[in-house]
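TICKET: design request
STATUS: open
ATTACHED STRUCTURE:
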C-alpha cells in the first residue's frame, strides 16, 4: 500500500473514532474502549479489503463480515455509514427508541451480515457461513472480528476446533487483543497467555501484528487470503481506547459514555490527530 493510500485509511479510522465518540456522547451510552481499539482494523477492512457493494447489501457474492464483539457497534455503524450503507446523520439515532441502530447490531441494519452481542456467537456463526461458502463453492471470504475478553466464552473454542476440521481457508478471523475486557485486564480475569500458540495448536495459521499499523493489518489480511486449506487468525495487538489519552489501557471506558468535559477533550485530541495525518508526507 502506498503512502497516499495509507493516509486515506488513517483518515477514515480517525473519522470512525470521531463519529463513535460523538454517537456515544449523544446517546450517553455505549462502548468507547473497544470501538477505539478496533477502528484501524475496521478502516482497513471497509476501505481496502472487503468486496462489498453498499448499494446492494445483499449481493450474494459479497465478502461477509461478522462483528462478533457486537458491543463495539458505534465504530461498526460509523464504518458502515462512511462506506455509504446509510446516511451519516442516522448515526445520531444510535441507541434511541425506534432506531435500527441499537446497542448491538442486528441484520435489520443495511450491511450487517449477522446479529451479534451475545459474545462468542458471532464467531461461531462465521464458521457456519464459511462452511456454507465451501458448500456453494463460492469465491467470497468470511471475515470476523472478535475480542480477547470474548475468548472466555466456551463456544469460541468449539468453533476454534471446528474450523480447521472443515478446512475453512475462506475464513479470516481478527482478534482485537487490547488486553482489557469489561471490568479489568484479560490476564487477571482469565489469562489467555500465549494465545498465538494455543490457536496454532488447534490447526489455524496464526499471525501476530500491530493492530494500529495500517500496512501491517493490510499485509496480514493479504497473506491470510491464501487458499491453503487452513483457517486464518490475525492476532492484532491493540490498545483499548486508542486515540483518546484518558481512555487508553483501561477498562474504565469499556461501557461508559464520556461526560461533557471528557467529550470535548476527546474530540480535541482526535482533531489534532487528524491534522497530524493530513500533514504526513508533505514536508
Ligand atoms: C455471552 C455474553 N456474556 C457477557 C456479555 C457482557 N459483555 C459485554 S462486552 C464484555 C467484555 C468483552 O471483552 P472484549 O471481548 O475484550 O471486548 P473489547 O475489550 O474489545 O471491547 C462482556 C463481558 C455479553 N455481551 N455476552
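STATUS: resolved
RESOLUTION: sequence designed for all positions
ATTACHED SEQUENCE:
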Amino acid at each position: 500500500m502506498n503512502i497516499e493510500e495509507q493516509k486515506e485509511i488513517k483518515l477514515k479510522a480517525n473519522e470512525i473514532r470521531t463519529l463513535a465518540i460523538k454517537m456515544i456522547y449523544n446517546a450517553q451510552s455505549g462502548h468507547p474502549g473497544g470501538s477505539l481499539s478496533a477502528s484501524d482494523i475496521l478502516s482497513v477492512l471497509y476501505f481496502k479489503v472487503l468486496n462489498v457493494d453498499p448499494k446492494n447489501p445483499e449481493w450474494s457474492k459479497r465478502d461477509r463480515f461478522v462483528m462478533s464483539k457486537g458491543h463495539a457497534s458505534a465504530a461498526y455503524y460509523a464504518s458502515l455509514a462512511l462506506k455509504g450503507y446509510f446516511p451519516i446523520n442516522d448515526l445520531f439515532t444510535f441507541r434511541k427508541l425506534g432506531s435500527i441502530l441499537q446497542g448491538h447490531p442486528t441484520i435489520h441494519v443495511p450491511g450487517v451480515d449477522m446479529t451479534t452481542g451475545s459474545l462468542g456467537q458471532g464467531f461461531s456463526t462465521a464458521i457456519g457461513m464459511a462452511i456454507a461458502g465451501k458448500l456453494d463453492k463460492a469465491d467470497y471470504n468470511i471475515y470476523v472480528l472478535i475480542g480477547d475478553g470474548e475468548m472466555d466464552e466456551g463456544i469460541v473454542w468449539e468453533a476454534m476446533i471446528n474450523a480447521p476440521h472443515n478446512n475453512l481457508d475462506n475464513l479470516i478471523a481478527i482478534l482485537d487483543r487490547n488486553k482489557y475486557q469489561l471490568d479489568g485486564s484479560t490476564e487477571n480475569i482469565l489469562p489467555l497467555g500465549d494465545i498465538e500458540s494455543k490457536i496454532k495448536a488447534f490447526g489455524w495459521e496464526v499471525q501476530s501484528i500491530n493492530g494500529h499499523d495500517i500496512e501491517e493489518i493490510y499485509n496480514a489480511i493479504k497473506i491470510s487470503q491464501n487458499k491453503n486449506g487452513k483457517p486464518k487468525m490475525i492476532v492484532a495487538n491493540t490498545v483499548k481506547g486508542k486515540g483518546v489519552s484518558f481512555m487508553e489501557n483501561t477498562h474504565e471506558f469499556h461501557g461508559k459514555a464520556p461526560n461533557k468535559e471528557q467529550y470535548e477533550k476527546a474530540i480535541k485530541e482526535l482533531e489534532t490527530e487528524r491534522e497530524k495525518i493530513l500533514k504526513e508526507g508533505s514536508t
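CLOSING REMARK: Residues 31, 33-34, 37, 69, 71-72, 117-119, 147-150, 153, 176, 178, 180-182, 240, 254 surround thiamine diphosphate (CB under 6 Å). The radius of gyration is 18 Å.
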